[in-house]
Every structure is written in C-alpha cells, then in structure tokens.
Amino acid sequence: MLVYHYCLSRRLTEHWHTNRCGGEPSAMVGTCGQYQGNPDQRNRYTLNLICIKVISSITQVIYLQKFCGKCPEPKVQEDFDMQRFQGRWFEIERTMSFLQIGSQCVTTNFSDAGYGDGSIEVISEGKGPVLKLHKSVRLIATVPDEKEPAKLRLRLSDLSLKTHYWILHTDYDNYAIIWACNHIWLTFKYARTENLWILGRERTLPEETLDKLHQRLETVKDIRVAKLLKKVNQENCD
C-alpha cells in the first residue's frame, strides 16, 4: 500500500509540478495545454487529464501541502534545550499529513534513542477515526549541526526518507510549534511539502495561548501552512 501510494503520489506530484511550478509541458501538449494529436487520442487524453486533476487535487489537500521551491529557513527556538523538551506532548492542532489522516487523541513522546550519538526517538501514538484502533509511528531525529539544536532531521526508522523537523517556538512547559519540510526533486526543479504542529503538555491549550501562537505564526512569512491548521480531537481519549 505504501509503495502504491508513493508511485501514485509521485506521478500526481509530477503532474502538479508541471502545472503549478512552471515545469515544461508534455511533448504531447502545446504551450496552452492543448493536446497535439488526432481526435480519438485527444478525447482519451482529455478524460485522463480530468481524472488526474481531480485525484491530484484531492491528494494535495488530504496527504501533503505542496509548494514550489526549496524549503525556507524560518527562525527557530533560540538556545534550544532538548533535555527540557523531552517527554510527552499532546497534538493540539496540525496540518494534514499522510501518516495522521483522521487520527485522534494523538500524543508524541520525545526521548533519547539510546544509540549514544544524541539521536532522539520520536513516537507518535493515537486512535484511528473509525474503529478507534491504536496507531503508532516510530521515528528517529538527529541533530546535523550541534550549533543549531532546534533544527532536527527526522527519518522513519525503517526507511531512508528524511525531512527537516524544526522546533520553531516552545516554553517547554506548556506549548511548542514544530514545522516539517521535505524537498521533492522533480523535472529538474524543486518543490516541497510542509507540515505544522502545535503541541501542548496537556490535552488542551487556553484559547488565549492558541491565539498568541497563531499571531506568532502570522509573522513568519516563510511558513505557508499556518492557515491550514486544524484542531485535533483530544476528547474521550482515556
């Protein structure tokens, strides 16, 4: 299933990249997107294109937030202390991501991975949206540059996929803002996916605190997914 989704997502992303990121049109398509072929082939092409556009639009909304260009470099938490940051956090708000579609009661726990190299184990747990089945994802975070400890590099423990995983802001005791970005190299040009989380040490955050965090995100021009944040259901979790 993961392999199928990767192949489908890559083909749809290439189509999206060509139409949204200024990629070159297909050899069968003119500069204005018109098919250069006989009528029968043109009709089949038009039908396929409609299907691709519909599926591509759904994929972009549900699975990943895609943007043109390389990952930006927003300001991160100064003097970040991973020791203070470790422990359990609750997801308060998040943007949509493939691994967390419909997940409720989501917690994320940060702890020493035990490898002796400073890497951090990140375990995200929650319940599915329908049968409320328990779901768990284990990831490993490393710090490429010790001078910038808030800029983590995250990877799935059994895959080589890596992504930026940066702590933008936290007071360690109440809230945290985490931003993730991953490069996509397509058609000799860069695109990227972004995700964003607001975490809390408790299952809820005061509205006043959330408002302040939203206002802070509005000042970060490089973060384009802030308006896509949605609340995570943390009710009836015990």
Question: How is this structure best described in words?
Answer:
This is Apolipoprotein D. GO terms for molecular function: lipid binding. Residues 80-218 form the Lipocalin/cytosolic fatty-acid binding domain. It comes from Trichonephila inaurata madagascariensis. This protein has 238 residues and is of the alpha+beta class. The chain is 25% helix and 33% strand. The protein contains four helices and ten strands; from the N terminus they run ααβαββββββββαβ. The chain has helices spanning 2-20, 39-62, 82-85, 207-218; strands at 65-68, 87-94, 104-112, 120-127, 134-142, 151-156, 162-170, 175-186, 189-200, 230-231. The protein has an eight-stranded antiparallel β-barrel with strand order 2-3-4-5-6-7-8-9. Strand 5 (134-142) and strand 6 (151-156) form a beta hairpin. Helix 1 (2-20) packs across helix 2 (39-62).
